[in-house]
Design goal:
about 260 residues, Fructose-1,6-Bisphosphatase, Chain A, domain 1, D-Maltodextrin-Binding Protein, domain 2, 8-stranded mixed sheet, globular
Length: about 260
Amino acid sequence: MTEYSPRDDLALALSLAYTADLISHDRFRAVDLEVTTKPDRTPVTDADRAVERALRDGILASRPEDGILGEEYGEQAGEGGGSRRQWIIDPIDGTANFLRGVPIWGTLIALAVDGEPIVGVVSSPALEQRWWAARGLGAWTSRSGGEPRRMTVSGVSQLADASISYNRLRGWLDAGQLDTLARLGTSTWRAQAIGDMWSYMLVADGAVDAVLEHDLQPYDMAALIPIVEEAGGRFTSLDGRPGPWHGTALASNGALHEELLSNLR
């Protein structure tokens, strides 16, 4: 089996993101957009499916032994040495925004090795911005294809000075933690629901200090983790476990992480 470096895999992920952008942006605000409801009652569009098919084709062509986990077409196991490597993709994170014409959505592409995400790309053509990272290579962003800029998290160290995003109230209500969120939100400088992948990218770029979220899948989180961590932040579940496998997320600048976990217990 060919050995690939994080830089090699990042280059592939960025190439795949370019392909995804061409498909998704062409369907954004399309008058003939096809929208259906999945068994879990979440919406899916023809763009979600088309993007994921293109991403799968690109991965299979370049890394045929690797596994794939995608939101729309499920899991495909890798073979041989590639069984340790799994590409995790969300073709359009923020489908509800996408179908309503709100520009906060993007394609998430990650590579996990032995369950640990080591490469992450988030691409949002409607916002004209892309974010990416790989282990040991830093976290970067670019607007409108311009010069890449390295990202770093904020230096805020007091919860009273922090700006946080809690994403959806419904997730907190369903988890029985609405009171916890209210208590935490009133102890910070600012609490708001920015939503979806953009809030995590704002953490990586130092504009927001923490994001807390319930009711997530691995493909919602895997691409975000290397970007937040390579920017100097920290990413766990709401009960402090690492990785995208536990259904919740707490992403922070690192300095606030333990205090936030303590408030959530």
